[in-house]
Design goal:
Layout (H helix, E strand, L loop, with lengths): L1 H20 L3 H7 L1 H8 L4 H54 L4 E12 L9 E7 L5 E7 L14 E9 L6 E3 L13 E4 L2 E3 L1
Parallel strand pairs: 3-5
Antiparallel strand pairs: 1-2, 1-4, 2-3, 4-5, 4-6, 6-7
Length: 197
């Protein structure tokens, strides 16, 4: 496993060095095809085969390096999102203490209870989230404007971006969907890798 990681890192370094110095391997190969075809008849078959293997190995290293870079970017995004969620918990705590409403916030919580849908007026999927700051919030997700979260159950993690409204019980999250009229910031919910908006 460590050797694969080292090869991946080595591939990234080679790729970055090539990019830094302006090497365009594809252009070099395409530009010299005429020369290669005339030389290929002079090169023994075994040498051509080993050259092909070398090129495949370089492409594989570059691919592994790209995978490693993608993984690093994904980890960076997760760290940014985690930081955003912690900041959101602090905003919700302060809004609750000061009884402030209409606060756009992003965070995450664990499903404490799944409630019946509210079908009066605009239909809303409702559930309660326990937050890491000790508060609970009721999520009222408009399912006339956004898809419902299917198979939501107690203990699931749900990330949210929406508008916090103060209540004595902890608060309510609204606007967890897009605004078809474009007058309000679009919100969303994320559950098991899928975004609902």
């Amino acid at each position: 496993m460590a050797n694969k990681t080292n090869l991946g890192i080595g591939g990234v370094i080679v790729f970055l060095a090539a990019a830094y110095f302006g090497f365009d391997l594809t252009q070099q190969n395409n530009g010299s095809t005429g020369q290669q075809s005339s030389q290929s008849s002079q090169v023994p078959h075994a040498e051509q085969h080993s050259s092909d293997k070398g090129q495949q190995k370089t492409e594989q290293l570059q691919s592994n390096g790209a995978d490693h870079t993608d993984s690093a970017q994904h980890q960076g995004q997760n760290a940014d999102q985690s930081s955003q969620n912690r900041h959101g918990l602090e905003v919700i705590r302060k809004s609750f203490e000061r009884k402030i409403s209409n606060v756009q916030v992003q965070s995450a919580g664990q499903v404490k209870a799944v409630l019946r849908d509210d079908n009066e007026g605009s239909r809303h999927q409702k559930f309660i989230l326990s937050l890491d700051n000790g508060l609970t919030v009721l999520v009222a997700h408009n399912i006339d404007l956004a898809p419902r979260i299917e198979n939501l159950k107690k203990g699931d993690t749900v990330e949210f971006f929406g508008e916090y409204e103060y209540s004595a019980q902890g608060g309510v999250m609204h606007w967890t969907h897009h605004d078809p009229q474009g007058r309000h910031t679009d919100g969303w919910l994320k559950h098991q890798g899928r975004t609902y908006q």
